[in-house]
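Long-time lurker. I teach an intro course on protein structure, and each term I like to show students one example going from raw sequence to a predicted 3D structure in token notation. This year I'd like something fresh instead of my usual example. Would anyone be willing to generate the tokens for the chain below so I can use it in lecture? Attribution to the forum is fine with me.
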Amino acid sequence: MRRRLWKLTREAIRRYFVAGLLAFAPLGITIWAIVWIIQRLDRLLLPRVIDWLFPSLETTPSLPPLVGALFTFMVILLSGVIVRHLFGHELLKIGERLLSRVPVARSIYGGVKQLFEAILASSSSRASFNRVVLVEYPRRGIYGMAFVTGYVRGPLSKAFPDRRLLNCFVPTTPNPTSGYYLLVPEDDVIELEMSVEDAFKMIMSAGLVTPGAEPV
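-- Reply from a regular --
Happy to contribute to a lecture. Here you go:
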């Protein structure tokens, strides 16, 4: 009797603990991530500007939360206004010409610029980022989920003039920010009717979470 009571109690504790974890862990992690980003933005620009304007201060004064983040946001917004409507394009061209003469800086700047242009492009040109496909990887008969980032162009496409290739990113589990870049013929991919968000859920959970599946 005592053993049965202990078993029922243990199972109840496990059920309630899992229910509480599922309820609060995603919310807690999301809040933690937002707070972490805001804290970094708070310390990104404003404290340095205060130190530069008031060098006599021994320590940077404590600022209320969000003030530094709002300051950083306003600086980025003002920079965008200057670039779009004033003389910002000329300054950028001068800066790019200077960086083009420095070998290492030229490579870093070019890669970062192309990455941000691809991520922040308009929705029409970004449509290819929303494709989830299956590719045979790492060998025939085994399939992996991949995200299509566009068609292969430039020197790589010239290496295969008779085939249309896709740029595919195959993420790893449970960390989808790392993965493998593959060139896959378009005829060899299998299209999936799945959103990028649902695909990330499956990858991060190693298939334990399958959005849209019938409950067993």
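Some talking points for your students: Residues 127-204 form one domain. Helices lie at 2-42, 46-53, 67-85, 88-99, 103-119, 155-158, 196-204.
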